[in-house]
Structures are given as C-alpha cells and as structure tokens.
Amino acid sequence: MSAYAALSAAGYRAYTRDKTTLFFTFAFPLLFLVVFGLIFSGQEVDETGRPYISYIAPGVLSWGVANAAVFGVAFVLMQWRRDDLLRLIRMTPTRLSAVIGSRYGLALVIGLVQAAVFVLTALLPPFGLELSGDWPLALPVLLLGITAFLAIGVVIGSFTRTPEAVAAVANCVMVPMAFLSGSFYPLDAMPSWLQTLSWALPLRYFNDGVSAAVTGDGGATDILAACGGLAAFALVFGLLGLRTFRWSDRT
C-alpha cells in the first residue's frame, strides 16, 4: 500500500504540474462539443427524429474519457521504461499491481471529473442537452469504460519506445474508432454493415452505455449490455497488457 500511495501521489503531482496536458485533457473534448453542438444546433437526425445533441454529447464524452485513459497510461509507461524508472522500481518491493493500480486510480479521477465538466457544459442553453433521470447509471459504465481503455493504453505503452510512436499508435486506434463507433456521427445514419462492424469496437459499448444513462436512449438492459461488453474488453486487454508489459527496453 505504501508503494501504491507513493506512486499515486507522484503521478498526481506530475499531472497537475503539467499545465498543457491538464488543459487539453479537459478542453479537447469540450472543443468538439462546442463545434458540433453549434453546427447542429436545433437539428434532428432524420432516421430517429431525435436532436443531434443527444448523439453528440454522449459520444464525444465517452471518446474524450477513453482518449485520456489510453494516452495517459501509454505515455507514462513508455517514458518510465525509456528513462529506466520502471527498472529501478522493480528493484524495490513494489509490485506490478501497484504501478498499474496507481495509474488506474488517477485515470478514474480524471475520467469522472472530465465527465462532470462535460455534462455540465452540455446542459447549458446553447447546447440544450436534456439529462435523463437515470444518469447515475452512467457511473458503472464510466468505470468499466476507463478500465477497458486503460488496459488498451497499457498494451500500447508496453511496446512503443518513443513519444512519437505512442501518439501514432494511439491515434491510429482511437480516431478511426471514434468515427466507426458513433462518437462523431450517429450510427443510425450509417450503412448497416458499418453498424454491424461497430459491435467489435469497445467504444461502441461505451457510447451506448453513456447514451442510455445520460439521455435515456435505452433502458437498464442496454446499460447492462454495455457494461458486459466493456468488462469483456477490459478482461481481454488486461490479460494482454500483463503479457506484453516490460520493465525495461533492455529485455
């Protein structure tokens, strides 16, 4: 526990001192909300008759939280391994669970704060998001979503060796997934084959779960299905992350 506490405290201090990263972690998703919210203000999706904001807000929210989880852990693991910090940590009684657990705790805090700031902004009159009474059910979706995407970040951070490689791989994973999972464009307006393909992507379940809870676009069954899908992805990528994790680039 002392190792976990020390790593968590160090991670928190490093994160809050990096003002650029801190700013863009929260500002980047809000930028997409402002752009898409103003462009599609007052418009409805023809296929469903629902306002665009009910698709845009949950989708951009889940993508922003997932993006922060992936990049946050991937960059740190790569940098710590490149600077031989992980090798030094390994020489102490610190276990791998403390290293990953400390990053997980920080990712949860960041993700929950991101979600709160984002939803409060989307509720403002220029955007007009209507919050469902089931919005507290978004919490388990957020927790499982952060878990799944942090596991993906562990995999990326375990085999990349430079910041450029982390950015390239993570963007190649997250940007196409955002479009194919309905974060930036309603899935109902996409071809049926793309809608089918989206079920193979964890962000689809994240989007659906957040949307069902925040906007009421679905019920408890949809939220449960989203949680089940995210849990499965978290398990698969978590096991893969443990298999690929390296303490040093020398091995």
Descriptive account of the structure:
Helix 1 crosses helix 5, helix 2 runs parallel beside helix 5 (96-122) and helix 3 packs antiparallel against helix 7. The protein is globular. It contains 10 helices and no strands. The mean pLDDT is 87. By secondary structure, the protein is mainly alpha-helical.
Summarize the structure.
With 251 residues, this protein is an all-alpha fold.
What's the topology here?
Blueprint lengths: L1 H16 L1 H21 L13 H30 L2 H6 L5 H27 L15 H22 L3 H18 L11 H6 L4 H14 L4 H25 L7
State the secondary-structure class. Answer: mainly alpha
Order of helices and strands: HHHHHHHHHH
Helical stretch count?
A: 10
Amino- and carboxy-terminal Cα gap: 28 Å
* Number of distinct beta strands: 0
Low-confidence runs (pLDDT<50, min 5 residues)?
Answer: none
Overall mean pLDDT score?
87
What is the share of helical residues? over 70%
Shape: globular
Mind describing the biggest β-sheet?
none
Radius of gyration of CA atoms, rounded to a whole number: 18 Å
How large is the share of residues in beta strands? under 5%
Key descriptive features of the protein:
251 residues, 10 helices, mainly alpha
